[in-house]
Write a structure and sequence with these properties.
The structure is a single chain. The chain is globular and about 50 Å long. The N and C termini lie far apart (about 40 Å). The protein has 7 helices and 7 strands. It has about 240 residues and is of the alpha/beta class. The longest helix is centred in the middle third of the chain and has 21 residues, at about 150-170. Strands 3-4-6 form a 3-stranded parallel β-sheet, with helices on one face. Strands 1-2 form a two-stranded antiparallel ribbon. Strands 5-7 form a two-stranded antiparallel sheet.
Length: about 240
């Protein structure tokens, strides 16, 4: 199969998800997946600016109290994926393993910049359970983190709700420690829109390779609507080794 996928900012992640499903069902053995974003006309830029979605100073301030919109950017990100056994047999360089994936509909929401936190958390719960991941072993999450005051706080709320449920399902509902860093590549390269998801995946793969968690930028003071107490999360505000 060869298909273009347009689900706005999640396009390249949905491409990875669809390719995984097709490979799982025997439709193909390997695939190129990813996204390309080019800004060739001013029309969308003008529309987003009028809607108040864009940062006026050209800085994507994810999780910051100064978050004032996102920064559009261009980019291309392509990954080559195949089944793990085949990659091991071929002696390929393996940068990461996809343990599972999930997608759902965003559900009813007030606006494009105010997504539905329940839909987000439901999808996270489904993805982690399907992959058989113990939430207590998760040490980093690459957030969507667009740099809007409302959108960032909703995403954190969804993560907290999902992990609370996942913890409860392990039979150990007490969060023993703060163990999971949160970051967003958009603070480094802007929001590549159709390629945003794969940009985040590539960042994670590079962090695996170098065993480093990369600092998210432009967050001197945390968004007051973000509350991380009683959660396993912390913001990666300093680069550090990834143990």
């Amino acid at each position: 199969p060869s298909e273009p996928i347009d689900t706005a900012c999640s396009s390249s992640l949905v491409a990875i998800h669809r390719a995984r499903i097709i490979m799982e069902s025997g439709g193909c053995d390997q695939a190129f997946v990813g996204g390309i974003n080019t800004i060739v006309t001013p029309d969308a830029h003008i529309s987003y600016s009028k809607a108040g979605m864009l940062s006026m100073d050209g800085r994507c301030k994810t999780f910051s109290k100064d978050a004032n919109g996102y920064v559009r950017s261009e980019g291309v990100g392509i990954l080559f994926i195949k089944k793990l056994k085949a990659a091991v047999l071929a002696g390929d360089n393996i940068y990461g393993v996809v343990r599972g994936s999930a997608e759902n509909h965003g559900g009813r929401a007030a606006a494009l910049t105010a997504p539905n936190p329940k839909a987000q958390s439901d999808m996270l719960i489904h993805a982690y359970q399907k992959a058989g991941i113990d939430p207590r072993t998760v040490s980093y999450i690459e957030a969507h983190g667009t740099g809007t005051a409302l959108g960032d706080s909703i995403e954190i709320s969804a993560l907290k709700r999902a992990f609370k449920t996942l913890y409860e399902k392990t039979g150990d509902s007490d969060i023993q420690s703060i163990h999971c860093g949160l970051g967003s590549v958009k603070t480094n390269i802007g929001h590549t829109e159709l390629a945003a998801g794969v940009a985040g995946v590539i960042k994670i793969l590079l962090q695996f390779k170098h065993k480093q968690l990369l600092r998210s930028l432009h967050c001197e003071e945390v968004n007051p609507y973000i509350e991380l107490k009683e959660s396993p999360f912390y913001l990666v505000d300093q680069s550090q080794s990834w143990k």
